[in-house]
Amino acid sequence: MATDQSVLLCDVCQKRHLNKSAEEYCPQCEEALCRECRDHHKLSKWLKSHQTITVDKYNKLPSFIKQISQNYHLEEELLEKVSTLEKTNCREIEEIITKLEDEKEKVDGIQKEVESVKLFASVCKSSWEQRHSKKVFQPMKSTSNKYMTTGA
């Protein structure tokens, strides 16, 4: 926007290297507009909802009010960047969650194998104990039978 408060030039025309006096100002676009550009501005599908004010009213606004609209655009940019970062972080978090779920499935599989090995070891131990206990008790049985037959 032109900075000279006494004669405000149309920002759109200045972009086309023309110097026309502005009659209105669009706070949403932050542009001063001549009559012709204002008419096009009001007809535009995307801009027709914008409420323009006269240049006189704009010039009477305190400078801190004019600064608010400029800060608003900075805020919009920051919000857009934050949104982009959030989307990126969400994607990364989703990838990490997927990897963790895959790792959990692997751990669950290992736990099942460990339980299987424990069960097999328990069966083996029981079987060994049964075989070992028969060997220990067999000589005793034969000795006791021997005493029983001789004593009768």
UniProtKB/TrEMBL annotation:
CDD domains: Bbox1. InterPro entries: Znf_B-box (IPR000315). GO terms for molecular function: zinc ion binding. The keyword Zinc-finger applies. It comes from the Eukaryota. Keywords: Metal-binding, Zinc, Zinc-finger. Residues 5-55 form the B box-type domain. This is B box-type domain-containing protein. The lineage of its organism: Eukaryota, Metazoa, Spiralia, Lophotrochozoa, Mollusca.
